[in-house]
């Protein structure tokens, strides 16, 4: 049997030669000075018994004080001491006894590792997203969150290799940079992705579960409706905002129509008939997946005609700043509100709450208001018989709403909304 001294002091010769250890293991010393561990074995193939050689790896002299992690990295690089080479021989012999060629087994394991590494988190996340029964714009918003918050951290990692520590890093960073709401959305999304990975045998566990309570609970806070004075101040602040023109115009359109923020930022020019002052949002872009027709007040038509001169050549009214074939994102509103100091007092979706409250105060019938907001009628019988669009009444209502917004923006606190008692 060989000793470490023999292995370490073996000198190269003109031709390769072997130093035998026993049980098929030997050290081959090449003229270049490279020393390689090899294992010679016999394997039955059909009726014949064939001799083969398995290259274990290179001979290594570990540095003094080598820790376990460094030693494992060295072995992963197929560099072994004498004792380690004997352990590898024992593993190889066990495979031979089972009729398995060690070289073939190593190749299979390499292919398996490559396949596992190819199954990255971002690939599984996109697969999970495609399986959701969501509208396309909802999927686009969720993908945007993943690309901003999650993928930069763990997107390229094998889904099987991601640990709770990786997940916790994603959540903490999201909470610090984007707030608890975004962190909570990231947590739910990651857990859903890992659930799919586990179900399809591409991961063994959900690493989100151990750290699910690491951050404070995200309590949904429904923003109260703004007062008339606050509405005026907000609209004045936005008009004076020095940011992108598209963001300001989209924000104004949201207030003039009371549409959802996502419906506004993703609006397309082919949905509008400006001559008829009508906006028709297709079902696939609506939350309830039902087409929605919106009457446009004259103020909305005016800003849209001006916007058409700027972005009419694009599909979307408000193209993304960097990718002009895509729409801008709702996050643009939040960033603007943060700069203006409104982020803690008002969220874009609260526009609808404010509009509903003030329109009710102005005396308009709830049927008109709820239809304008595209809310579903909770009463099934009433829903069946009340399918009217109320376009004429809603057009009058929204024109008065737009006129009142102009008055409130001026800041005249003595002007109160008229009560219409509409029916």
UniProtKB/TrEMBL annotation:
Q: Which domain of life is it from?
A: Bacteria
Report if keyword Ribonucleoprotein is assigned. no
Q: Which residues form the Tyr recombinase domain?
A: 221-398
Residue intervals of the Core-binding (CB) domain: 119-198
Q: Which CDD domains match?
A: INT_P4_C
Q: Name one Pfam family in it.
A: Phage_integrase
GO biological process assignments: DNA integration; DNA recombination
Which Gene3D superfamilies does its entry note?
A: 1.10.150.130, Integrase, DNA-binding domain (3.30.160.390), Intergrase catalytic core (1.10.443.10)
Which terms does the record give in the GO molecular function aspect?
DNA binding
Keyword set, alphabetical order:
DNA integration, DNA recombination, DNA-binding
What's this protein's family per the entry? Answer: Belongs to the 'phage' integrase family.
| Protein name in the entry | DUF4102 domain-containing protein
- UniProt lineage: Bacteria, Pseudomonadati, Pseudomonadota, Betaproteobacteria, Neisseriales
């Amino acid at each position: 049997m060989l000793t470490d001294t023999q292995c370490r002091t073996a000198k190269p010769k003109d031709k390769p030669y072997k130093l035998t250890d026993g049980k098929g293991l030997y050290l081959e010393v090449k003229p270049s000075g490279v020393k390689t561990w090899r294992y010679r074995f016999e394997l039955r193939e059909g009726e014949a018994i064939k001799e083969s050689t398995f290259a274990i790896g290179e001979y290594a002299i570990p540095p003094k004080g080598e820790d376990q992690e460094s030693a494992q990295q060295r072995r992963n690089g197929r560099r072994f001491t004498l004792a380690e080479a004997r352990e590898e021989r024992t593993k190889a012999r066990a495979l031979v006894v089972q009729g398995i060629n060690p070289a073939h087994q190593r190749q299979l394991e390499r292919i398996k590792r490559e396949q596992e590494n190819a199954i990255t988190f971002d690939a599984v996340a996109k697969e999970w997203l495609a399986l959701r029964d969501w509208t396309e714009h909802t999927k686009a918003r969720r993908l945007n969150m993943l690309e901003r918050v999650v993928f930069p951290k763990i997107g390229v990692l094998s889904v099987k290799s991601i640990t709770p520590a990786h997940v916790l890093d994603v959540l903490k960073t999201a909470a610090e940079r984007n707030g608890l709401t975004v962190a909570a959305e990231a947590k739910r999304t990651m857990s859903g992705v890992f659930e799919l990975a586990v179900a399809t045998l591409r991961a063994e566990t959900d690493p989100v579960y151990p750290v699910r309570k690491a951050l404070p609970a995200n309590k949904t806070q429904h923003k109260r409706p703004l007062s008339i004075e606050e509405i005026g101040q907000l609209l004045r602040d936005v008009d004076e905002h020095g940011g992108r023109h598209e963001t300001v115009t989209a924000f104004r359109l949201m207030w003039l129509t009371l549409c959802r923020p996502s419906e506004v930022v993703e609006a397309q020019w082919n949905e509008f008939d400006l001559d008829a002052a009508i906006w028709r949002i297709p079902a696939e872009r609506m939350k309830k997946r039902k087409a929605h027709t919106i009457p446009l007040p004259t103020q909305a038509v005016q800003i849209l005609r001006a916007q058409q001169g700027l972005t009419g050549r694009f599909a979307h009214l408000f193209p993304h700043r960097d990718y002009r074939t895509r729409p801008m994102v709702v996050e643009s509103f939040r960033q603007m509100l943060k700069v203006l100091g409104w982020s803690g007092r008002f969220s874009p979706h609260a526009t609808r709450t404010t509009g509903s409250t003030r329109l009710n105060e102005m005396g308009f019938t709830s049927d008109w208001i709820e239809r304008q907001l595209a809310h579903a009628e909770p009463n099934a019988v009433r829903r069946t018989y009340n399918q009217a669009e109320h376009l004429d009444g809603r057009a009058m209502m929204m024109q008065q709403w737009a006129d009142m917004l102009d008055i409130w923006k001026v800041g005249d606190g003595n002007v109160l909304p008229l009560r219409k008692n509409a029916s």
